[in-house]
Amino acid sequence: DLKPFMRAFEPRAEVKEPAWAGELMANYW
């Protein structure tokens, strides 16, 4: 099962997520 990896779904990596990535995901959804 191949899925695009999104750190938003990975709590352990949340603290390492850049601000622009969060904005990008917010606009994506």
Task: Map the helices and strands.
Elements: H1 19-28
What does this structure look like?
This protein is mainly alpha-helical. It has one helix at residues 19-28. The protein is extended.
SSE order: H
Give a count of the beta strands, DSSP E runs of length 2 or more.
0
**DSSP helix fraction:** 25-40%
Radius of gyration from the alpha-carbon trace, in angstroms: 10 Å
Distance between the termini: 22 Å
Overall number of domains: 1
Poorly predicted regions? none
Name its key features:
29 residues, extended, mainly alpha, single chain, 0% strand, 34% helix
Short structural summary:
Helices cover 34% and strands 0% of the residues. By secondary structure, it is mainly alpha-helical.
